[in-house]
Design goal:
Number of domains: 2
Distance between the termini: 27 Å
Order of helices and strands: EEHEEEEHHEEHHEHEEHE
Oligomer: single chain
Shape: globular
Strand order of the largest sheet: 3-4-5-9
Number of strands: 12
């Protein structure tokens, strides 16, 4: 799992007048975030190395790929961490950039499946058919049915599989309960592709070297703005602002669920580690509450 404990900015001089390729501004120095599991000093050193690499790219006339984004873990505060007896981490709860809690798991496999919004005309035709007595599924229901058919096909191919299926605001979430998985393994990537995983989610799992599941509702679906203060907090004032926002957001989020359990398909057998993840995930997301999704 790539969830660093320490973050710090490091800077490097450009060594010559350089024009920023995106903004056109003259720049004499560059700053980049660095990270470390050891110390702030090591994080700052890595930030300087990344800033120097960025400056060199721009000097050569190369447009940077989102400031070396592809090699960077997500900058999130660790709220809780679960370790095995050998001190390796198998799960961690983090605070993401817009203020939601996220469950990160080293080998317990979550799969997010987006169901695209139904075009307005298709939705209208579906409603019209139902008014005329057609009792077939709506376009949205048909999307979900097609997605679940892939899960059921996987269970038929291997009855040892176990999959908990949840409905989210934007689609479906699967939690595989029968076995552990390596987020970067080819077999895992193929399984996620077969199940229809969001490609961006698949890429994120590879970069972070873990699976991720949002635990709390998105702020704008609860009637509030996203968190505007980024971790690590710049100073005590910024930290207070973040804590005040979290308190207000938490009160509004109480009325919503993040996902709702539909069904457990296949085997219900699971080991102690997976069982702990399931219990925690379902409690925090309010998966059995029947509340409105957000």
């Amino acid at each position: 799992m790539r969830i660093p404990r320490y973050w710090a900015k490091g800077s490097a001089a450009s060594g010559m007048p350089v024009t920023h390729p995106a903004t056109g501004e003259a720049m004499e120095a560059f700053s980049c975030w660095g990270w470390s599991d050891v110390s702030v000093d090591e994080a700052q050193q890595r930030g300087r190395q990344r800033a120097a690499a960025l400056a060199e790219m721009i000097r050569r006339g190369t447009r940077p790929d989102r400031y070396l984004y592809g090699d960077r873990p997500m900058r999130e505060q660790i709220l809780d961490q679960w370790n095995r007896e050998d001190a390796t981490t198998f799960a961690a709860v983090t605070l993401n950039g817009y203020g939601c809690q996220v469950l990160n798991t080293a080998s317990v496999m979550f799969v997010d499946v987006d169901l695209p919004e139904v075009p307005a005309m298709s939705a209208f035709v579906g409603r019209l058919k139902r008014l005329l007595g057609n009792r077939g599924p709506s376009p949205r229901q048909q999307q979900a049915s097609d997605a679940l058919a892939r899960v059921q096909e996987m269970i038929r191919a291997d009855p040892r599989c176990g999959v908990r299926v949840y409905r989210t605001r934007g689609g479906l979430r699967y939690l595989l309960t029968h076995a552990h998985a390596d987020p970067g393994a080819e077999t895992t990537l193929r399984a996620m592709e077969v199940l229809g995983a969001d490609p961006l989610y698949v890429r994120l799992c590879q970069v972070q070297e873990c699976f991720r599941a949002r635990l709390t509702p998105k702020p704008w679906r609860c009637g509030t703005q996203a968190l505007r203060v980024r971790y690590p907090w710049q100073d005590p004032k910024a930290e207070r602002a973040a804590r005040d926002w979290i308190d207000a957001y938490s009160r509004k989020a109480e009325r919503y669920a993040t996902c709702l359990l539909i069904e457990q398909f296949g085997s219900t057998e699971m080991d102690e580690e997976i069982a702990r993840v399931v219990e925690f995930h379902d409690a925090i997301t309010k998966a059995r509450s029947g509340l409105e999704l957000a």
